[in-house]
């Protein structure tokens, strides 16, 4: 049991640690917002990340590959929402608030943003399904629950730790918050444009 739990935990860390849309959103929130909002974003991101990991573990990628319209819908919404978030970050770089307690987002906006950076990328879902689904197929049936539990634990520890670490040292980065915003925004726009290109490619190719 411990062996498979640890395997899942290590796999989960390798799965969530590389810089992506989720990490960028959590980092940016921790740099600018209050501790309460930072942990709110981290918690919601964790919930969506765990739901995605479990779905990938049981092969939701196959549904996206099977249902063409579902894939197109995710690509289109992902393109629009992630571009919107990226542009918002760049625009906010020109009006950084000194008081991190000001300008908190509504819960609905946070949920939509966290959902977008987690779920609105069909390629990530398909890749995740291949990785996690592949592991699921190779595990003894009675041990798979411990493996996916380890993956979920990694998500909780990673995002809560990331939020806490960046939030604690954010004051040291006050002078470069503007540029961090711009860089994060540009990377998110890049991710969004990739989704837009994939949407066009899926329609015309």
From TrEMBL:
Task: Name the UniProt key words of this record, in alphabetical order.
Answer: Cell membrane, Membrane, Transmembrane, Transmembrane helix
| Top-level taxonomic group | Bacteria
InterPro entries with a match to the protein in the record: LeuE-type (IPR001123)
Where does the sequence pass through the membrane? 6-27, 39-62, 68-87, 107-126, 146-167, 179-200
UniProt-annotated location(s): Cell membrane
Gene Ontology CC: plasma membrane
- Topology in the membrane? Multi-pass membrane protein
> What Gene Ontology molecular function terms does this protein carry?
amino acid transmembrane transporter activity
Where it mainly occurs, coarsely classed, is membrane
Q: What is this protein called?
A: Amino acid transporter
